[in-house]
Amino acid sequence: MTKTYLQVQKQIAQLQKEADTLRKKEAAGVLARIKEAIAVYGFTAEELGVGVRKTRAAAAPAAKRKGAKKAGAKAASAPRFKDDQGNVWGGRGPRPAWFKAALESGKTPADLAA
User: How far apart are the first and last CA of the chain?
Assistant: First the structure.
């Protein structure tokens, strides 16, 4: 005997109810383990990324706030190459003229390594 559409819909509803019950039971166990870890390790709400929501002023991007440093700005890296005249280059971006000239004069990048 083949199943009818209504029989399949009833079965789906029954399985969904069973799935919801299992999810709640599993979630309770997960929550208990999380609470235990919080108690053992002393995590704060801030460390977990939960808690007080930021206000609009606090949530504004740093670049828009007066006096804030440019967002995404990175500290300068140590120079990888230098010459006798005090020129330095970090090794990123286009090669500077002094570096090209040194290579043309017979020096190798290893000779110019900082």
Answer: 83
AA identity, residue 62: A
CA neighbours within 13 Å on the CB side: how many for 67?
0
SS3 15: helix
How far is the C-alpha of 11 from the C-alpha of 16, rounded, in Å?
Answer: 9
In the three-class reduction of DSSP (H, G, I as helix; E, B as strand; rest coil), residue 89 is classed as strand
pLDDT tens digit sequence for 9-52: 999 999 999 999 999 999 999 999 999 999 998 888 888 888 76
Q: What is the pTM of this model?
A: 0.37
